[in-house]
Specification:
- The protein is α/β, with parallel strands linked by helices.
- It is built from eleven helices and 14 strands.
- The chain has helices at 42-49, 71-77, 93-103, 110-118, 132-144, 162-177, 189-195, 213-218, 231-238, 260-267, 282-290; strands at residues 2-14, 17-27, 31-35, 57-62, 65-66, 79-81, 150-154, 181-186, 198-203, 206-212, 222-228, 244-248, 251-256, 272-279.
- Helices cover 35% and strands 31% of the residues.
- The chain has a six-stranded mixed sheet with strand order 6-7-8-3-9-10, with helices on both faces.
- It is elongated.
Length: 294
């Protein structure tokens, strides 16, 4: 069952800014990543999903409700964390959380309390005196506390320290296991890799790829860094036909995916002083989508 569906969504701001013929959909119980550099169109797409912007062309829906026509019904039921949080600074954190809870007609405040405890959030102080990380924690509590079935997050862990980023990742995985659908834009590759089932890559307002994360992980190559005893061993190894990425003195770097046994067999006949392994990161794997290989 599709929970979020975007069809030919277009908003042209001129000078090649905006989004153009964006097509994607998410399934129930899926964590769907939305990855791209600044200005690529991530937030513009999310604002259409929230009904803040009327499409010039195309459409988008959440749970079969039109995001523009039925925006009030959609916003009442889903969880949302904007990329730029605008709180009422004269409120305390707890007043803000209680205000959002009242808007959502929440009767049970137990999940909010649990989230505040998990994120080590003391919400008693004035929001205007809070750090970016503290405000982000309040936003996360507000997005998840009413137990929504669909959650839309725009750069959700921005401002969180590494410990709290891990707490957030655990939260996302727990909600996924409960059958929630989470649509999440992010700059943090580890966050995407650990949480997402699929990820759309957007560049210059256009979707350039939608990747299955398990399949993508299987595409990761490994670099084997072999240090030989002598240059003669290096020359002998060069004749074996492996894809050599770099040679520095007697150290050879080889990129391979699945022919490790063949590599070990060949180097076993040579004098090897050291062998190290470096696995390709998700960030390196994605660089070619952004033109990073240049």
């Amino acid at each position: 069952m599709e929970t979020i569906k975007i069809t030919n969504l277009t908003k042209d701001y001129g000078n090649n800014k905006g989004i153009f013929d964006v097509n994607l959909s998410t399934n129930k119980g899926e964590v769907f990543g939305f990855l791209g550099p600044n200005g690529a169109g991530k937030t513009t797409t999310i604002r259409h999903l929230m009904g803040f912007i009327k499409p010039e062309k195309g459409s988008c829906s959440v749970n079969n409700m039109d995001c523009w026509k039925d925006s009030s019904s959609i916003q009442n039921s889903l969880g949302y964390l904007p990329g730029e949080i605008a709180f009422m600074n004269n409120m305390t954190g707890i007043q803000m959380i209680e205000f959002i809870a009242a808007m959502k007609n929440m009767k049970d405040f137990s999940k909010a309390k649990d989230l505040m405890e998990r994120f080590e959030l003391d919400p008693k102080g004035k929001i205007r005196k809070m750090s970016k990380g503290m405000k982000q924690k309040i936003g996360i509590v507000c997005a998840f506390m009413h137990n929504p079935d669909v959650i839309i997050l725009d750069e959700p862990s921005s401002g969180l320290d590494p410990l709290m980023q891990n707490v957030f990742i655990d939260l996302v995985l727990e909600e996924k296991n409960k059958g929630k659908t989470i649509f999440m834009s992010s700059h943090i590759f580890e966050e995407v890799e650990r949480t997402c089932d699929r990820t759309a890559i957007i560049k210059d307002g256009k979707i350039i790829s939608i990747e299955d994360m398990k399949l993508l992980s299987n595409k990761k190559s490994k670099s084997y860094i072999i240090t030989f005893k002598s240059n003669d061993d290096v020359e002998e190894f060069k004749s074996k036909g492996f894809r050599i990425a770099n040679i520095t003195d007697n150290t050879v770097t080889v990129n391979i995916k699945d022919n490790l046994l063949s590599l070990l067999k060949e180097i076993s006949t040579l004098d090897v002083k050291d062998l190290d392994v470096k696995t390709q990161t998700l960030e390196e794997l994605f660089l070619h989508f952004y033109g990073g290989e240049k």
